[in-house]
Amino acid sequence: MLHGEGAEKLRALSLCAGYGRFGGPRASADELNQIFGIMEQNELLRPDRLLTGYVPGAEATAAVTAVAKKLRERNPELIYLLDPVLGDSGRLHDNHPELV
After folding, report:
1. Residue 50 belongs to what H/E stretch?
2. The pTM is what?
3. How many independent structural domains does the chain possess?
4. Over the stretch 10-42, which tens digit does the pLDDT of each residue have?
5. Exposure on the CB side of residue 95, measured as CA atoms within 13 A
């Protein structure tokens, strides 16, 4: 918490391959939906800002999209920052062509 503002962080992949080291588990769509569901039950899905980055695959992207829409419906003034993370070093990631 900083200046009275808190943040909830969900990890899907820790670090990008563009940094030389990468790893960590990827959260599936089911895992993301479960996390978002628990956060909602605990009344933690009430932010006024949302930042998303790399999301591993179309199904997980659909889960993030659904929660983003829900948050926007609750708060039309929601600030949504999207870092699409489509590639590194001038090259497009080719592991999820369905998202490009």
Report:
1. strand 49-52
2. 0.67
3. 1
4. 544 444 555 566 666 778 899 989 989 998 999
5. 10
